[in-house]
Amino acid sequence: xxxxxxxxxxxxxxxxxxxxxxxxxxxxxxxxxxxxxxxxxxxxxxxxxxxxxxxxxxxxxxxxxxxxxxxx
Length: 72
Fold this sequence. Notes:
- This protein is an alpha+beta fold.
- 28% of the residues lie in helices and 21% in strands.
C-alpha cells in the first residue's frame, strides 16, 4: 500500500460523507480528491503539494479497476 493510498476514506460510508460535508462548509477547507467507479468512491481532503505531485505525475496510488476516475 502506498502512503498516499492511506489518505483516502470510503466516501460511500455515511459517517465519512457527513464529516466531509461539514468540512466543506469550513473556511479552512482547501482541496479534495475523489476516486470513483460504478460501485465505490473514496475521498481525500486537504492534500499538500507533494501529495498532488504523486497523484498527478506518478499515479501513486495507481487508479484501481473499481475506481478508474480520479477527480481533483
